[in-house]
Predict the 3D structure of the following.
Amino acid sequence: MTKFFFKSAKINEFRLWGLVFTLVGMGVMILGTAGIVFWGQAGKIIAAIFMVIGMISLLISVAVYFWAGMMSTSATMLQCPECGRQTKMLGKTDRCMYCRTMLTLDPAQATHGSQEQQV
Ligand SMILES: [Zn+2]
């Protein structure tokens, strides 16, 4: 039933998005500050807007990190059959954090998942 669109383990995916939002937030704030240098008085308004956007982005990144942390505590610990390393999985289907093998607790999806991995 559940369409699987993540390219890597869900926990890693959330960490990646958290990082993206942190970088975007910082980048936007730096750009806003640079606006003062380039446009003087008018740049201050732009800088203020950019600061707010940057702050929102940073808040989102904190929320994403927090959410990822919350989910990783409820994640299932298991040993990956492919690389033998200890990994965490979220929900019924997830990828190994190390070798990205499709892992599933649902036997109905197991065959489909391993076929997809052949690519
Ligand atoms: Zn693995």
